[in-house]
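Loading example: each entry is read as three labelled lines plus one structure line.
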Amino acid sequence: MSTMTDTHDDHDDHDHKPTGITRWLYTTNHKDIGTMYLWFSFTMFLIGGFMAMIIRAELYQPGLQIIDPNFFNQMTTVHGLIMVFGAVMPAFVGLANWLIPMMIGAPDMALPRMNNWSFWILPFAFSILLASLFMEGGGPNFGWTFYAPLSTTYSNDSTAFFIFSVHIMGMSSIMGAINVIVTIFNMRAPGMTFMKMPLFVWTWLITAFLLIAVMPVLAGTVTMMLTDKYFGTSFFDAAGGGDPVMFQHIFWFFGHPEVYIMILPAFGIVSEIIPTFARKRLFGYSSMVYATSSIALLSFIVWAHHMLTTGMPVAAELFFMYATMLISVPTGVKVFNWVATMWKGSMTFETPMLFALAFVILFTIGGFSGLMLAITPADFQYHDTYFVVAHFHYVLVTGAIFSIMAAAYYWLPKWTGHMYDEKLGKTHFWCSLISVNVLFFPMHFVGLAGMPRRIPDYALQFADFNKIISIGGFAFGLSQLIFLAVVIKCIRGGEKATDRVWEGATGLEWEIPSPAPYHTFSTPPEIK
Amino acid sequence: MKVTRSTGWSIPALLATGNVMASDMPLNMVQGVTDISQKTYDLHMNILYICCVIGLVVFGAMFWSIFHHRKSKGAKPATFHESHTVEIIWTAIPFVILIAMAVPATGVLLEIEDNSKSDLTIQVTGSQWKWHYKYFDHDLEYYSVLATPRAQYENYNGIFNSNASKPLPKGENYLSEVDRPLVIPINKKVRFLVTSDDVIHSWWVPDFAVKQDANPGFINEAWAKVNVPGVYRGKCTELCGKDHGYMPIVVIAKTQVEYDKWIAEKVAVQAQAKAEEQKLLGMQMSKDELMALGERTYLASCAACHQPNGQGLPGVFPGLKDSPIALGDVKKHIDVVVNGTKGTAMQGFGKQLGLKELAAVITYERNAWGNNTGDAVQAADVNAVMKGQ
Amino acid sequence: MQQSKQVENSKLVKKLVVIVIGMFGFGFALVPLYDILCEVTGLNGKTNTTAASTENIRQNKSRTVTVEFLAITNKNMPWQFKPVERRIEVYPGEVKLVNFYAMNESGNDLVGQAVPSVSPGRGATYFNKIECFCFNRQPLKAGAETLMPLTFYIDADLPEDINTLTLSYTMYDVTEAVQGESTQLSQTGE
């Protein structure tokens, strides 16, 4: 255990933090930046969620009631972009900022100034993206996957702004990832070997490598799009010797690892929470590390399973089918390990544990539909229907987002120094759990029955189910306001949190006071 | 477990506010009418069952643990946290299961991808937002466009949108009906050569288990051998712009005899239509006639972008009301409608509409919504521009 | 922060930045890589873009292959464009000449570029074009018509299970691209 007061330090600000807006503008403190990331992410979550509400309102019944198809396409596109790049990814970066230094016994992130930058360019990126919705002709309307030539030859004038904002988001992610890697490599406390690191740190390290490997490829893709649209090149235009299908290959070379960027830190979070509330060490720590690494490696050779209907040679279709099926092995190992951790534990069910348990079950359901989608002949029937929509929302909402919620409840007492309102937290959980399943589970049936995705209007046979889905959607959206209330209440006061907070918690972050002081581990702690 | 028969999911309270007739939706993938679609369905069901069994085991263990190993029941935590044997077992078992899944899947896939020895070839071209079918061995080709009237699906209530109009009640095949369906014979291997002339589309008929992307500049192959005569409906399944949701597919499978009869009839009709075109050149249609035909053609072919009120969507599709082209030189106007405008979404309609329709729709655009130019464009005028005069 | 740690950090940052730049370049390198992959495997059914040699063509008269021709005009390409013969039978190694008919139905002089695609894609590598109108841009005056030749042969190594090869041409209007270039290159005459 370490003492918190700095006695011999070349810093002169000690525990005094600057006040007012400049504190947040100029801060290089990992905790401040983490907080900003988390609030930014939550804001984006609400904005992207509002767009989902518009989509569900239009789909509440057949016919065009509220918006026109062009605006509908903008909503689905921007909803996807905001949720992926604005909500999920920044939330994980925020958690990384708060937790990684505390977990490895470092005083701060390795590159604090860059840390400030990587956050502060994000609001600009999303302001540009959102502003493009109000330009003449509207914002991006070609889906978050922006397939050429719809996004090049046939897109509207605001596409340049879309490209610019994607570039900034990419830069922010790359800087964040570099920071994480350098921090984990160079800033670990003495004795904190790699195989002693908490699993959240491990999964983030692997995620960070994925980020620096594929975000530049995304930047390359949008740059090619830019020159195709505005400067007469023809990377994706058949007339000039290009190939629109190549766009999809390059995009998904980024896109598939990107999917794992959004789920690996979630694995880390759940691997922290379940042992705490089962009061038992994580089962198979090292196999968890290897499983995560192999998922990351496999993610580079499965991209074309997103494009099995583009007319690939049968050999390629077989290869990508086998490779994709293979991913279920390490993923299965993780799920089995979590269950084995619970087995013969001594479990209690506070809100973070409830979210973690829901994660395990619902993410596994998403995994099952993923396995079904891997089977190429069946994929010909599933592809681009609501079955796919159900699949990736199970993985991303009840997967990634639920894990972020779990993390927030788990570490809130450490961040604020107060216990959150358990009753309200549980209400939030049960409302979310029920509504999210009313929202996404029927989508499986709708998709199997033949409803394509990204359509503003549908045949009458889908009407009943869409109504149910929409009601689930509104309920899930409203439930998230409870979360906002819990967080605000927790910041403003509540029962004083102990240092350890949870009976079964282990790890360096639980050794320091609650709330965590502005500067921690200025003297490195000793690792047994 | 999912079942094929449809169930009454309608919850009266939820439906109270709706104005639609709920028709029954199947809860599972269609079994379809080809051998391939049946095999795909079987594959789908097998994987689903396997997943359910795995789920039952894993979630069963988890819930057992949740109920029995809880602190409130006085459970004391065990201390084990590693076992190589167990890890190896639960890595190996999934491998075996995967191989069991992959073998039949490979078989079906190889069968699907065997495009050889077809009896009939049809070229399918996706276009914003319609399908074009061309019979390879006959002089027969046509566009297939959504037949549901706009008044059935544009139900804006006037609060959010000024285009408010009284909606028509929705028909049985709402958004799944087309003006000219594709017709194919049963028990023949029909090969589809799929391509696009603008963005990427995807041609999907669930009953055939055929979903093939239409890539501009490239052709893809797919095939179906239909066992049962009937009407089969599908959708475009790749986001292709504004009216992606409004380009359905309808395929009618007929017996060989009926199919042959149909082909002969259609070929004759198209040949006759071409001959009629020549006669049209000498014909003068009255302005009223032109306006009436023009309005129908406009609503079917132009209103998706330029809107029924001719005001377009600002910044996306230009309005025609008071537009320089609709009010300016007639020849230029004809050229734009016939050949399209390069680098924009405006496509050429010269190959999609007859001379009469073209003349009528241009007349309509020049006189509707207060564009009172008074011009009456005749088929001969259109023909002159088409022939480069 | 200690001096040594800062040096270590900046070393690692430099390495990571190199990876980032490398991956950005790799994104672009995927373009030629994809082309090579397509050429080897026929991934997207693209055929050779330069003339194949006429020497040492091996023949195999024991089998015939059906070759089908498709002609498609891209949106906003006001040409009539169709194969003169829709379907022919050849034996592998047979050098064959076929013609495509084109007519410019618009009132403007236009330049077209035909983009070939072969299905099945696996067969594309065995489809050798000795002479093809798709190698060059095709200018056509307003109202003019023309016959465009294609000379090709099928490689004798064509796998036994491929009996039908479909060759499609999609005609694109590239007038603007040509004009853009000719302003720079001055008139070299096409």
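Residues 1-14 of chain A have pLDDT under 50 and may be disordered.
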